[in-house]
């Protein structure tokens, strides 16, 4: 589904949800790479191929038998999209959460999970601000993002699947792939020995996101 089409569909769903007193948690999953950028090579597969399969699997897992999630992908195979386009659509859709997925080659047997969130200079903004510039938008929820990243990692640590992967503490950096997005966002980078090992990280991420939904509602 393209982001422009997603805006139309989400708008209709939003109207239906308001009338039904039920608003789903809207999560945008952002697989690294696109038509122009193939990303890193993991044995015989490129990063863009692995991340699209991974995010599609997470989407399917989260949407199983529930209406509390609305999962959007930032791109489809064969599409080229710039960061500013992702940010504009994510902000226009007023998403609740943005998660970027990246992968790299490692010789370690267990997948390695790293968490990055955008951390830069602080920004004092008024609650009456009607326009948020692209270069500052991601800073607007910096405190909430920091809390979310740490809570997400803790949820994965408590998960019964944690024996299948190694977790690394969240790191705040000027993360370009999260720039311009108002909603809390995190970049998850996974080290894989084999390109198909991403399948071991689908259920852990999906189950942790379900727990996080309760956390988001309380933030």
Task: Write the SSE topology.
Blueprint lengths: L2 H17 L5 E7 L9 E2 L2 E2 H16 L6 E5 L9 H11 L3 E9 L6 E7 L15 H4 L4 H17 L7 E2 L3 E3 L11 E8 L9 H17 L1
Parallel strand pairs: 1-4, 1-5, 5-9, 6-7, 6-8
Antiparallel strand pairs: 2-3, 6-9
Account of the 3D structure:
- With 219 residues, the protein is an alpha/beta fold.
- It has one domain (3-218): Zn-dependent exopeptidases (Aminopeptidase).
- 37% of the residues lie in helices and 21% in strands.
- It has helices at 3-19, 47-62, 83-93, 134-137, 142-158, 202-218; strands spanning 25-31, 41-42, 45-46, 69-73, 97-105, 112-118, 166-167, 171-173, 185-192.
- The strands form two sheets. Strands 1, 4, 5, 6, 7, 8 and 9 form a seven-stranded mixed sheet that branches. Strands 2-3 form a two-stranded antiparallel sheet.
- β2 and β3 (45-46) form a beta hairpin.
- α1 (3-19) runs parallel beside α3 (83-93), α2 packs across α6 (202-218) and α5 (142-158) packs across α6 (202-218).
- The longest helix has 17 residues, at 3-19.
- The chain is globular.
- The protein starts with a helix and ends with a helix.
- Mean pLDDT is 80; it is low at 14-20 and 122-131.
The number of distinct β-strands equals 9
The CATH homologous superfamily name equals Zn-dependent exopeptidases
Kindly state the percentage of residues in helix. 25-40%
Q: Which parts are unreliable, with pLDDT below 50 for 5 consecutive residues or more?
A: 14-20, 122-131
């Amino acid at each position: 589904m393209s982001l422009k089409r997603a805006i139309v569909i989400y708008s209709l769903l939003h109207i239906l949800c308001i009338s039904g007193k039920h608003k789903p948690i809207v999560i945008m999953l952002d697989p690294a790479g696109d038509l122009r950028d193939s990303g890193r090579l993991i044995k015989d597969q490129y990063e863009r191929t692995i991340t699209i399969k991974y995010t599609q699997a997470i989407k399917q897992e989260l949407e199983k038998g529930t209406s509390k999630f609305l999962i959007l992908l930032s791109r489809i195979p064969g599409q080229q999209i710039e960061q500013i386009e992702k940010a504009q659509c994510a902000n226009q859709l007023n998403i609740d959460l943005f998660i970027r997925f990246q992968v790299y080659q490692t010789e370690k047997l267990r997948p390695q999970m790293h968490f990055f969130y955008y951390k830069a200079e602080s920004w004092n903004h008024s609650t009456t601000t009607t326009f948020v510039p692209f270069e500052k938008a991601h800073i607007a929820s910096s405190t909430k993002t920091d809390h979310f990243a740490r809570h997400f990692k803790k949820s994965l640590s408590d998960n019964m699947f944690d024996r299948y992967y190694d977790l690394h503490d969240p790191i705040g950096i000027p993360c370009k792939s999260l720039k311009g997005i108002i909603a809390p966002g995190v970049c998850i980078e996974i080290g894989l020995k084999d390109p198909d090992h991403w399948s071991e990280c689908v259920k852990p991420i999906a189950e942790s996101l379900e727990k996080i939904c309760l956390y988001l509602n309380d933030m």
